[in-house]
Amino acid sequence: MILNHNVVNLKMFLILSMFLLLLAPSTADALSASLAKSLQDWFPRKGVIIRNDATHNVILKCDAKEFDMKIKLLPPGTEERFEFLEIIFPLRWCYVQIDDKIHGLFWAYATKLKCNTACSWSIRDTGIFMYNDDMRSWTPSPLFN
Predict the structure, then answer these.
(1) CA–CA separation, 129 vs 145, rounded Å?
(2) DSSP sequence for 92-111
(3) Transmembrane stretches, by residue range (predicted)?
(4) In angstroms, how far is the first alpha carbon of the chain from the final one?
(5) Structural domains of the chain, count
(6) Which residues pair with 82 in a beta bridge?
(7) Mean pLDDT, to the nearest integer, of 7-21?
(8) Pairing of strands 79-85, 137-141
(9) pLDDT band with cut points at 50, 70 and 90 for residue 88
(10) Vertex 80, ends 43 and 76: CA angle to 5°?
(11) Which of 16-20, 102-106, 138-142 has the lowest mean pLDDT?
(12) Predicted confidence (pLDDT) at residue 23 exceeds the cutoff of 70
């Protein structure tokens, strides 16, 4: 009987606590900011840089909430960037259309790519290339159709 009474008290305490948090938005905002700061302390920020080094416009769409997820027309010499927290093996993919024959999906970020702080990509007339930090060179990457 005492156990049931303690469970009821705990439930009431939790309900009252949530209600008070809802009434105090500044407290909730402070908790959200505190949680965000804690996540940034525990998980590193990673980035993706995609540069159009082709001689013409290319179409780019990335599936990442940090990227506005719209289809973009990327003029030559311009780049798109986004950052995110690396929490539990993140995956970020993008679709690129270089021309009518060269187009497809690629992993813009995956833990297995072993990028240091950012994965750097170069879109060229012949395909997409990823910068290899260890070799300090650009290596071609497959596009998946």
Answers:
(1) 17
(2) EEEEEESSSSSEEEEEEEEG
(3) none
(4) 64
(5) 1
(6) 48
(7) 58
(8) unpaired
(9) confident
(10) 155
(11) 16-20
(12) no
User: What number is the average pLDDT over the span 102-128?
Assistant: 91
In a domain, residue 27? The reply is no
Helix runs in the chain, H state only = 2-23, 25-42
**DSSP-assigned letter for residue 112:** G
Token representation of residue 47: 């980035």
Whether 92 is in a domain gets the answer: yes
d(CA 92, CA 81): 12
pLDDT at 34: 66
3-state SS string over 113-126? HCCCCEEEEEEECC
Residue 114: alpha-carbon gap to chain centroid: 15
Q: Is residue 123 part of a domain?
A: yes
Structure tokens belonging to residue 87: 């929490």
Question: How far is residue 134's CA from residue 137's CA, in Å, rounded to a whole number?
Answer: 8
pLDDT at residue 123, as a whole number? 98
Q: pLDDT-based confidence at 125, cuts 50/70/90? A: very high
What's the domain range around 70?
A: 43-141
83 domain-assigned: yes
CA 43 to chain centre: 13
Asked if the model's pLDDT at residue 70 lies above 90, the reply is no
